[in-house]
Amino acid sequence: MEDKEISSLIRAEEERQAETLMLVPSENYTSAQVREALGSVLTNKYAEGYPGKRYYQGNEIIDKIENLAIERAKKLFDVPFVNVQPYSGSPANLAVLGAICQPGAKILSQHLSMGGHLSMGQEASMTSKYYEASYYGLTREGDINWQELEQQAKKCRPKIIFCGGTAFTKVFDFARFGRIADEAGAFFVADIAHIAGLVAGGAHPSPKDDAHVITTTTHKTLRGPRGAMIMVTKKGLEKEPELAKKIDRAVFPGLQGGPHENQVAALAVALKEANTPAFQRYTRQIVKNSHILASELIRYGFTLIGGGSENHLIWIDLTNKGLDGWTAAWALEAAGIICNRQVIPFDSNSPYYPSGLRLGTPAVTTRGMGEREMVKVGQLINEVIECARKMDLQDIGNQDKEKDQKARKRFKQQVFKQPPLLQIKIEVKELCQKFPVP
Ligand SMILES: Cc1ncc(COP(=O)(O)O)c(C=O)c1O
């Protein structure tokens, strides 16, 4: 039966993705081969268990697919063990917690308000109900606050120290994390969700020699399907020889049921694509593009957390522009530039109306955009923000909630009608047309 409603919505979304600048740093364009595997008959199959040990019949081919994904991941990341079944990044981190910690165990991670991720013990996440989380933050310069991390590690003696989050613009010093974890007797879990592609492509150091466990989503810079992996390193197996088995048991049957083997197959495809010189060039270009875009934004007077970008991600503090992240993100969307709002370190605003924005270059680099285009994108972003600053912003951010909400509603109605933004949207579309989605 044809479903015209859904097919036309998919087509509309395809068009939106083609005609706008996708600058959300955690998004990317997958290849047709990845999507072919995702949309294949593999979605029809139940395969609870692991290759060679399934609870359902008919898994001979599925076993081969999952084994291929595992072998490709082990080779690409140079680790002795990989579980490719986690449905996504959050369940992957939960499975690691389940494998290593008893309920009530202490854990230490980057605080949500400082760019950490929910799944690593944040207050709003269920993980904080089962584990006693402490946090470390960033310095005002956007570095890891090492002093705080070391003090917390000594004071709490956590079972796990997590590294990784949704906003960090520098190169991770995994060796330093590893040393602090070793001194505290903790497992060091490196969540490389954002930078997995950069690590695979050699554009960011790998945590394989310093961490005991590595978790990652597969759909960001790695350019695979939505999903996740959990890896155990040589160092991890030395610390706990049963760690791989514990991870497997924590994923299934501990947390999940049947793995999504269409997703596993699509991941296998992405891992093959990532193990090529072309992918290595791609990841180097992501970083180059991010550096150039960051430098352009600084030239236009934007304040960047970390003072620039050493990876794929740019984190803007909008305080000096007199706009919050919500307002800026809607103005950018009205001009066809898609990014996301983000709290900044020591933010006095709420996470829903934070003071910052987060952007990144993985998706536009997949389209083939380079240095010249990044200069243009910087100019367009600046034009949008300048236009938004001239709009009626009265009462946005007012302590009186009713006034604030009324002002935001008015802004949203007006922003999509602003002639300068509509003009920029045309320019964005023209730029996008020159760099078709693969
Ligand atoms: C560092 C990090 N870990 C975990 C996750 C969770 O991934 P998912 O959204 O697939 O659950 C994210 C998602 O943004 C992330 O940035």
Can you walk me through this structure?
The protein has two domains: 32-274, Type I PLP-dependent aspartate aminotransferase-like (Major domain) (Aspartate Aminotransferase, domain 2), CATH 3.40.640; 277-434, Alpha-Beta Complex (Aspartate Aminotransferase, domain 1), CATH 3.90.1150.10. It has 17 helices and 15 strands. The protein has helices spanning 4-19, 32-38, 60-77, 89-100, 127-130, 146-156, 174-184, 196-201, 234-239, 243-255, 261-274, 277-299, 325-334, 362-366, 371-389, 401-415, 419-434, and strands at residues 21-22, 49-50, 53-54, 81-83, 106-110, 132-136, 160-163, 187-191, 213-217, 228-232, 303-304, 313-317, 337-338, 340-342, 356-360. Strands 4-10-9-8-7-5-6 form a seven-stranded mixed beta sheet, sandwiched between helices. A four-stranded antiparallel beta sheet has the order 11-12-15-14, covered by helices on one side. The chain has a two-stranded parallel sheet with strand order 1-13. Strand 8, helix 8 and strand 9 form a beta-alpha-beta unit. It starts with a helix and ends with a helix.
